[in-house]
Design goal:
By secondary structure, the chain is mainly beta. It has a single domain, classed as TonB-dependent receptor, beta-barrel domain (Maltoporin, Chain A). The chain is about 5% helix and about 55% strand. It is built from 5 helices and 35 strands. It has a 22-stranded antiparallel beta barrel. Strands 3-8-9-6-7 form a 5-stranded mixed β-sheet. A two-stranded antiparallel ribbon has the order 1-2. β15 and β16 form a beta hairpin. The radius of gyration is 24 Å and the shape is globular. The two termini are about 20 Å apart. The N terminus is likely disordered.
């Protein structure tokens, strides 16, 4: 059999299966009252035994985790059906997304109100951050949901284990190898002349295993901006993505693995400037390419485990205006990592490691690079299988901004009550973000002027905590409430008032709020899941931070009929009280998605979905259009 199909830096391949449907999508207070008033099913899986790896980079059951983590499974992704992964992730607590004009257009995923570039994204253990942009950030608009098997989202300041700061960590795993031989192919089409072809094939034995997956997605789209009143053209998108995973069990204790990824995205958008006269135009497009890779060796030796890995990515981003090249930026990110752990006994584990990272940027005017090395250590204690504690520290040395020490402590305590189990948990962590290569270069370049050109940027520092309580009943009803409070000192921001460059605030930029979660198998065939997030965000001067809804809610309902061959689902999303940059209110909106799948045979499945079923007219960012009601249908064959 395959002895290992995942490394500590990637999500595990299996988990206890929850009630059918959307796992852990959440609920507003009013819906919680409705849920609590109904009958409960007689049997459910204990979700606290689910194993996650993202909190401390090593496998841990959720009962022992004091941080805030949510999980999205392949079943969730398949049932929801969204082409873009960010549309799946926005169903999770504390996660909001803004998109500027449809598939392929720039999208920002914010966790607990923090900017997307403050969130680390790993894909099969690879840091896929793009260093070619103004900030080192993931390009969520370029990540398709096809081929993704699991996502773990770690919310809050997580500088200790990863070197990330206030935003958290999104850990994505693609389809992993398995024993034997098999795969899947699918094809789908729908509104806006959308079509997608995808598939994966893999297999393995005691020695070697592999999985290859790929997708080709294209859509004509719709007019990206309301300001485009002349061309009124469709702004389409094409994406070709390929992933490969190969593993070799050299000995009983040594596993070697290789991951490769290639993404090419072509997007049309509105509002750029001509190359010769610098006049505004809506005939704009960009080509995005990223090649990413990872090699790793995992070795188990008694109470010790060791992992040595090297991962990197190359990004090439080209922009065109009326068919003429206008701008090009290339970036590279490489990281050599060692991750070790020592199990002193059944109740004590030590986790330690080092990350040696190098990043570079070349946009034609700026060609620069720098290194940052980090070293970390964490203690994990288990006291009577009821109290779980972690405490650790990280030391980072940045070429340009010196040394920094981050730390994190967390705890979880469980006790039986009312025919179920209550978990109390809490975590406090710190982190920092050095100004990006672009931010520094811009302020020192010819286009900056006072006050930005007179500003010497320094690193941002973050800190935050959360406190949570959850209850898992024997019936399977799961309820969770979390309070969070986090701050960024000396936030860096672009001077939108005068366009002088990048400035830095004095004092704290705050984000605090509450997350409520419910997951409930109403019957053997019906499940309800929901979340509600209240998020209050303020700059150091007391202004609301733009594009951050104060209230977010998601509700998911799934119904299995015909002995499970037919699955019907509904997903409802609410967004309220977000503000624009000038302080004006943005649209409040509610969006309903409907989905269904029917298994004609064990191998052949038909599926469909209706996005924005009520044809809600809204904007997530002013002047940028969003999709109207759109239907999609497809077929999936497994072998």
């Amino acid at each position: 059999m395959i002895t290992s199909t995942t490394s500590p830096d990637t999500a595990p391949l299996s988990r206890p299966v929850p009630a059918p449907g959307l796992a852990r999508k959440r609920l507003s207070p009013a819906l919680l009252v409705i849920a609590l008033g109904a009958a409960q099913s007689a049997l459910a899986t204990n979700s606290l035994e689910e194993v996650v790896v993202t909190s401390s980079r090593v496998p841990m059951p959720l009962r022992a985790v004091g941080t805030s983590i949510s999980v999205v499974t392949q079943e969730d992704i398949s049932q929801l059906g969204f082409a873009s992964l960010y549309d799946v992730l926005r169903t999770q607590p504390g996660v909001s997304v803004t998109n500027t004009g449809g598939a392929g257009s720039a999208a920002s995923l914010r966790i607990r109100g923090e900017e997307g570039y403050r969130t680390l994204v790993l894909l099969d253990g690879i840091d896929i951050s793009d260093t070619s942009g103004p900030q080192v950030s993931p390009r969520f608009e370029q990540i398709l949901s096809s081929g993704v098997q699991r996502v773990e989202i770690l919310r809050g300041p997580q500088g200790l284990m990863y070197g990330a700061d206030a935003g958290g960590v999104v850990n994505i795993s693609t389809i992993a190898p398995k024993e034997g031989f098999g795969g899947e192919i699918s094809a789908e089409g729908g509104r806006y002349d959308s079509q997608q072809f995808s598939g994966n094939v893999g297999g393995g034995n005691d020695t070697v295993d592999f999985n290859l997956s790929g997708a080709d997605y294209q859509v004509d789209g719709f007019n990206a901006r309301t300001t485009d009143t002349v061309l009124r053209d469709d702004d389409g998108y094409k994406n070709s993505t390929a992933n490969a995973r190969v593993g070799y069990n050299a000995t009983e204790n040594l596993r070697l693995s290789l991951v490769g990824r290639d993404v090419e995205g072509k997007n049309r958008y509105d509002n750029c400037y001509t190359v010769d006269t610098f006049e505004p135009t809506d005939r704009c497009r960009d080509n995005y390419e990223q090649q990413a890779w990872r090699v790793a060796a995992d070795y188990e030796a008694g109470r010790f485990s060791h992992q040595l890995s090297y991962n990197g990515n190359d990004t090439d981003h080209k922009f065109y205006s009326e068919g003429q090249p206008s701008f090009r930026a290339k970036g590279n990110l490489a990281r050599t990592s060692y991750l070790g752990s020592y199990r002193a006994n059944d109740s004590t584990r030590l986790v330690y490691g080092a990350d040696l990272e190098s990043e570079s940027l070349d946009d034609g005017g700026t060609d620069t690079s720098r290194d940052q090395n980090g070293y970390y250590f964490e203690y994990q204690g288990d006291f009577g299988e009821r109290l779980f504690v972690t405490a650790g520290s990280r030391y980072d040395d940045n070429d340009d901004f010196g040394t920094h020490t981050s730390y994190r402590v967390s705890g979880a305590y469980l006790f039986a009550v009312a025919n179920g189990e209550i978990k109390l948990r809490g975590a406090y962590g710190t982190g920092f973000r050095a100004p990006s290569l672009y931010e520094v270069a811009y302020n020192n370049g010819p286009y900056a002027f006072p006050p930005a050109s007179d500003t010497t940027l320094k690193e941002e520092q973050s800190k935050g905590y959360d406190l949570g309580i959850s209850w898992l009943a024997a019936s399977g009803l799961y309820l969770e409430a979390t309070y969070f409070d986090q701050h960024i000192d000396d936030e860096i921001y672009y001077d939108l008032a005068a366009n002088s460059g990048y400035l830095q605030r004095n004092g704290d930029t705050d984000s605090d709020g509450v997350e409520l979660v419910a997951d409930w198998p109403l019957l053997a065939t019906v499940s309800l899941s929901a979340n509600y997030t209240f998020n209050n965000t303020r700059t150091s001067t007391g202004e609301s931070r733009p594009y951050r809804p104060e209230r977010l809610a998601n509700l998911g309902l799934n119904w299995n009929v015909l002995n499970g061959d037919l699955v019907l689902g509904a997903a409802w999303r609410l967004s309220e009280d977000a503000q624009d940059i000038d302080g004006s209110n943005l649209d409040d909106y509610q969006v309903l998605e409907l989905n269904a799948s029917y298994s004609l045979t064990a191998a052949l499945q038909f599926y469909g979905r209706l996005e924005n079923a009520l044809d809600e007219d809204y904007e997530e960012v002013p002047t940028y259009n969003t999709s109207g009601a759109a239907g999609y249908a497809g077929v999936r064959y497994s072998f």
